Amino acid sequence: MKDYGGRGPESHVRKYTQMLLKGLSCIYYNGHVHCDLKLANILVFPCRDHGVKGHHLKIADFGLAREPGEDDSDKLLHMYQYRGTPCYMSPESVQFVEITSALDIWSLGCIAVEMIKGRIAWVTLDSKELFNKLVRGNESPMIPENMPEKGKDFLRGCFERDHCERWSADSLLTHSFILDELLPPVETKTGELSSSHIDGVVLSVVNFVLCSN
């Protein structure tokens, strides 16, 4: 992104977003929710694809990760006040409801906006103001006007305020905003993941599971 002044070309944003969605799908398959997805927790590695230089993303830092359905609101109130980084948090994250994979999808939307705009999705970094916008103001990050309609629709799926209605990682992988990039398809069978689906995050997931036991 530094090569483009902090703002990535749409084709790059699509490609990187697809990588992150594959990673999130793998994380959920392994029974976890990241709970703190943000650019600072994404590692970038150089790679070559058919001789062409590129980059490969890996999701890192599972220190706040939890299992879906876990509710640790009492512990949070006494220890951290909230789980995650404010400018990437979803409305339900602030309200301490049951942990679901949907909160990571909201964070993914914030990351996509940040890659497109070259700055955070919100206009403020003040935690109290952000929480008021999320809970009392019923607000969502502003979707960039210069995005194509399919991109805006993709982000609307990420920023659905009702977490039960928010798109899942697997559903977003089939969205036209992602598929139009014409990247190699992810072939999966019921109950199992292909190696391409796991590639990029499984090592981080395994490390987290091993360190947690």
UniProtKB/TrEMBL annotation:
Cited Gene3D superfamilies: Transferase(Phosphotransferase) domain 1
InterPro entries reported in the protein's UniProt record: Kinase-like_dom_sf, Plant_MAPKKK, Prot_kinase_dom
Superkingdom, taxonomy of origin: Eukaryota
Secretion signal span: none
GO terms of biological process kind: signal transduction
Molecular function, one GO term: protein kinase activity
Pfam families membership: Pkinase
Domain named Protein kinase: residues: 1-178
Protein name per Swiss-Prot or TrEMBL: Protein kinase domain-containing protein
Organism listed in the record: Populus trichocarpa
